């Protein structure tokens, strides 16, 4: 099995789990919310890091910022 098929299989399993989420018990819903919070936090940190890099790359360092 190639990598593309494996990724599609994993996405299919996730999609099936998401479709059954409204009938799931509270532990499954809590686990899903924790994973969702983790993914959203990671994406927010990546966006923040990219914004910081883009905003500070064009600036020249000041002489006072040099490390002794």
TrEMBL record:
<dbReference type="InterPro" id="IPR031671">
    <property type="entry name" value="SMIM5/18/22"/>
</dbReference>
<protein>
    <recommendedName>
        <fullName>Small integral membrane protein 5</fullName>
    </recommendedName>
</protein>
<dbReference type="InterPro" id="IPR047133">
    <property type="entry name" value="SMIM5"/>
</dbReference>
<keyword id="KW-1133">Transmembrane helix</keyword>
<keyword id="KW-0812">Transmembrane</keyword>
<dbReference type="GO" id="GO:0016020">
    <property type="term" value="C:membrane"/>
</dbReference>
<dbReference type="Pfam" id="PF15831">
    <property type="entry name" value="SMIM5_18_22"/>
</dbReference>
<feature type="transmembrane region" description="Helical">
    <location>
        <begin position="29"/>
        <end position="54"/>
    </location>
</feature>
<keyword id="KW-0472">Membrane</keyword>
